[in-house]
Design brief:
single chain, 25% strand, nine-stranded mixed β-sheet, 2 domains, 7 helices, 17 strands, alpha/beta, globular
Length: 328
């Protein structure tokens, strides 16, 4: 079902908007489709996945199933939690709270738990090692809170998984799904823009006087493109919006979608006062998946949820396929 949409994708990230968004079901579907075609798969994660029950909600979760030949990079402590027979290929030296990341080859089919690196450089190292051991394709599992998954230097494309556990309101979940899809679909800008480096890297930090002086000079110069290096947060938006109409002819450029940590209302305000957003390195969103079942018992009507997400994507001008994997 999803296989045609990942044609030519060597590294795919599966990003959940929340816990229990259905990404493990999506991952299992992808694994099954690819292995049925004889592909050797590499699997890793940012965080932890594959556990039998969710450690936060204490609800039953689908486990990750692989066939013999799959290559898995996971934290050492999690190796004993699965039931696959395995051959150890490499000790990577990459630390995690659950132990060093070990790369193994499954010698028999079974279930695995995956815990991986949280630093982008480590993620790239693990990915490259998986390819060096002969993988045809690598899947990386993670969540929207780990925005490095949207970094195009890590993955060729992404699948965004949305679910009823995100919010009791189906309307809000659909709207926010479309918002994140917009971020992952921003146009790539080929020209080198006027550069300004922001040093505030996280929400709540304030810009120093040097950064604000530099911002004022660039904006008042009438630059048509303004590059925002580093994280683009709500505090970034507040600093920019202080210049109001002066931004009217300016396109804002982020390094890539993973750097955009804006809340939807901040993003919309910046769109109103500027010529819009672009990125230096683009990300391809291959598909959106929907899960109408909530770990908290507030389930959606499956048809309504899928239709609302499709409508929200269309309203945002996005032509991205939407799937309910369990309903296929």
């Amino acid at each position: 079902m999803l296989y045609p949409y990942i044609s030519g994708v060597r590294t795919l990230s599966v990003i959940g908007m929340c816990k229990n968004a259905g990404k493990t079901t999506v991952l299992n579907s992808l694994i099954s489709e690819c292995e049925a075609r004889g592909e050797i798969l590499g699997l890793t994660s940012i965080g932890r996945d594959g556990e039998r029950s969710d450690l936060v909600t204490n609800t039953k979760k689908p486990e990750i199933f692989v066939r013999a030949g799959a290559i898995v990079a996971t934290a050492e402590d999690l190796l004993r939690e699965g039931d696959i027979s395995m051959e150890i290929l490499d000790s990577t030296g990459v630390p995690t709270p659950m132990g060093e990341i070990i790369i193994v080859r499954a010698t028999a089919s079974g279930f695995v738990q995956i815990g991986g690196a949280s630093i982008t450089a480590h993620q790239r190292l693990i990915r490259d090692k998986l390819f060096a051991f002969g993988c045809d394709r690598v899947f990386i599992d993670g969540a929207i809170s780990r925005k490095s998954l949207g970094n195009p230097s890590l993955a060729d494309a992404s699948i965004l998984s949305s679910g009823a556990s995100y919010d009791p309101s189906v309307a809000r979940t659909a709207e926010d799904t479309a918002y994140y899809a917009r971020l992952f679909s921003l146009p790539q800008v080929g020209m080198e823009p006027t550069c300004l480096r922001f040093t505030a890297e996280s929400e709540g930090e304030r810009f120093g006087s040097d950064e604000l002086d530099g911002l004022a000079k660039v904006i008042r110069s009438g630059a048509s493109k303004l590059m925002l290096r580093g994280a683009v947060t709500d505090s970034t938006a507040k600093a920019l919006l202080a210049y109001g109409k002066l931004l009217g002819n300016t396109t804002l450029i982020a390094e890539d979608a993973s750097r955009l940590l804006l809340k939807p209302d901040s993003f919309e305000k910046l769109l109103r006062f500027t010529k819009g957003f672009g990125v230096l390195k683009g990300t391809r969103l291959a598909a959106v998946t929907v899960n109408p079942f909530s770990a908290y018992g507030l389930h959606y009507d499956k048809n309504e949820f899928k239709e609302r997400v499709e409508s929200a994507l269309q309203a945002a001008g996005l032509d991205i396929p939407v799937f309910d994997v369990k309903d296929a």
